[in-house]
Amino acid sequence: MNRGDENTSFEKVYVLHYSRLKRFAREYVLVEEDAENIVHDVFTGLWERWDTFSSHSNLLAFLFMSVKNKCVDHLRRKVLFQKAEDKITEEYFLTLRANLQSLDVFNHSFSDERDIEQRIAQAIQTLPEKCREIFIKSKIEGKKQKEISEELNISVKTIESQITIAYKKLRNELKDYLPLFFFLFIE
To answer: What distances in angstroms separate CA 29 from CA 21, 38, 40, 65, 84, one per listed residue?
Structure first.
């Protein structure tokens, strides 16, 4: 069979079955555009293998099975995507709720500026001695890490690790006052 006959034959199959296949796909994927894309992909695959179909007796079964399989793949991807989206939405909602509770606690916890200063001072006092000294020099006194390194005769890496330790401990110590923690200590 020459290529012109193949084109005519393929076009006939396309015209004859496209609408039914699209309706079939639409029943499962629900969105018209998705159904069209699925059927288009099936016909593209058929065109690429057109010369392997010697008889048209199994062609209709092949088309419906191909559309069914593509619908299954499409729906699996949608379900996975929806689960991921739901998880992100849930985590976002939980974060918002935690932030609201934190701000409520923060709002009721301090009657004036002295309360805030006292709570911060208490939290800083819980730090190990060297860690506290480095943290105060860096975050309260505003000294650069190189300057602290020279002053205390320790490496800049040690300064960085001690500040990281201080952040972790202070974040835990001030967990009920996270807005205050972020406002004061995170650059």
So the answer is: 12, 9, 14, 15, 19
CA distance 64 to 17: 10
Compute CA 155 distance to the chain's CA centroid, rounded to the nearest angstrom.
37
Cα 97 from Cα 6, distance rounded (Å): 63
**Residues 86 and 116 both lie in one domain:** no
Specify the amino acid at residue 134.
I
- With vertex at residue 120, the alpha carbon angle to CA 119 and CA 125, rounded to the nearest 5 degrees, is 100
Q: Are 22 and 35 in contact (CB under 8 A)?
A: yes
Residue 46 lies in a domain: yes
Q: How far apart are CA 101 and CA 71, in angstroms?
A: 44
**Residue 166 domain boundaries:** 112-185
- What phi and psi values does residue 18 have, to the nearest 5 degrees? -55, -50
Model confidence pLDDT, tens digit, residues 41-85: 999 999 998 888 765 568 889 999 999 999 999 999 999 999 999
The number of distinct structural domains making up the chain is 2
The pTM score is: 0.52
